[in-house]
Amino acid sequence: MPLESRPLSGSFAHEVVDLQLWELEDRSTVDQLRQLWAHHAVLVFRRQALSETELADFSALFGPLERVVRTEWASPVVPEVGLISNLKDAQARPIGGLGDGELQWHSDQSYMRNPATGAVLYAVELPPEGGTTSWADLSAAYAALPERLRREIEGRRAVFSYVKRLAGYQGVDRVISEETRQQTPAVVHPLVHPHPVTGRKALYLDSTTTIGIEGMDNAAGSTLLDEIYAFATQPQFVYRHDWQVGDVVMWDNGFTMHRREPFDPEARRLMKRTTIFLSRERHIVPEGELATKEVLS
Ligand code: SIN
Q1: Which residues, 6+ apart, have CB-to-CB distance to 103 below 8 Å?
Q2: 74 CA distance to ligand 1 centroid (A)?
Q3: pTM of this prediction exceeds 0.85
Q4: Is 52 in the pocket of ligand 1 (CB under 6 A)?
């Protein structure tokens, strides 16, 4: 059966309709979904009802699942599923990560040398207002980038630091184990990648994590990055998702950034997410290197 999808509010995001993600047995449907995701970075599925195992099984159709470095955010039931939540357990300990605060424009895993760039987020409980999530299309942003900015970033690599990202988190999310610190040294990634399926070039960015541009002094690198962030997150490149319980959104961090609005700390929000190692044949997958001491000095 041909897959039915439509663009959402004239944006780059597509809603896939009439699909129950817990019973995707038809190989051709899966192939069509893979193909669709290569072209459209954000796919939305409404009215889903998934166990954690079903969420993990659906996600694994697109690549091996990553257990992210924040192991304390993992579900106790299915460790490949992360809990993004402000809820606390009976001992008043957070059950997951990322609380209720604003999350600025970022790309998951950009701080890793080999980032797992696929993400699936499933809405289980939602606050009455706030907590909406937006995505920016970094392929469209690159296509519209003024020639001067394109020239300035041509062949350049940005420096990504998990230490910077942590500083933007709230409360205990800022605290990491020695093991996590060892797993997250600063890395460099090219700022521009061609997409292996569409051939379109895209920016690879993360405003919460980049600390500069290799080979440029700190001030000049930060100024250039700020200019690009301001350009790439203009409304014409952005899809804003108003969550409903049962929504599943999957996105490709290889050519998007996303941000979340804050919400009332007294309200409940529970999201379940998976992180996927996508294939280089179908997706932009940055191949980074460790940042050298010279770059970091
Ligand atoms: C995330 O940045 O992965 C979480 C987004 C959200 O909580 O909506």
Answers
A1: 168, 208, 258, 259, 260
A2: 14
A3: yes
A4: no
